[in-house]
Amino acid sequence: MPETNPDIANGTHVSSTPFDKVEKKPSAIPKTFKFEQAVLSDQASASLQNVSHFEFPHVYGNVPKLPFFSGEEPCPKGEVSFKEWLFEVKCLINDKNLLPSNVLQAVRRSIRVSARQTLISAGENASLDSILLKFTSLFGTTFDKNNVLQ
């Protein structure tokens, strides 16, 4: 059987000190945080009421991965030819779920060796179109020895 307080068991009134008169130690005081609520305008709030889902095309971190391309001949192991790389880039450009800035970042991450030096010479503000134009002029039309002799 659980132990009971004899004062309570006998019906004796136990007095207690009101909470506001208890001495509070600084470490015993709970920390409080202030939260502020954003207020939407009537127009913004009305437009959000009928939304069933949100799409965030501007989300960062959605950078696709392209195969590596270096411009080296013969094509090193683990890399693809310019023709294959360009095909993959064009597929990403046509993907409406990707931002152009994410496609550009994917292109920059996939370039290696001599193609990387060409990319660096184009500058950090080079557009995707200017990079593809430059790469096409350098790597786009390659002839092997058999085709040149014919």
Structure description:
The chain is an all-alpha fold and 150 residues long. The protein has a domain at 59-142. Helices cover 43% and strands 0% of the residues. The protein has helices at 6-9, 42-49, 82-94, 100-110, 113-122, 128-140, 145-149. The chain is elongated and about 105 Å long. The protein starts with 5 loop residues before the first helix and ends with a helix. Residues 33-38 and 51-59 have low confidence and may be disordered. Residues 1-22 are annotated as: Disordered.
Which characteristics define this entry?
single chain, 150 residues, mainly alpha, elongated
Strand content: under 5%
Low-confidence stretches: 33-38, 51-59
Biggest beta sheet summary: none
What is the N-to-C order of secondary-structure elements (H for helix, E for strand)? HHHHHHH
Count, helices: 7
> Residue share in helices?
40-55%
The termini sit apart by 106 Å
Strand count: 0
Mean pLDDT: 74
Radius of gyration: 34 Å
Structural class: mainly alpha
Strand and helix layout:
Elements (H helix, E strand, L loop, with lengths): L5 H4 L32 H8 L32 H13 L5 H11 L2 H10 L5 H13 L4 H5 L1
Helix pairs in contact: 5-6
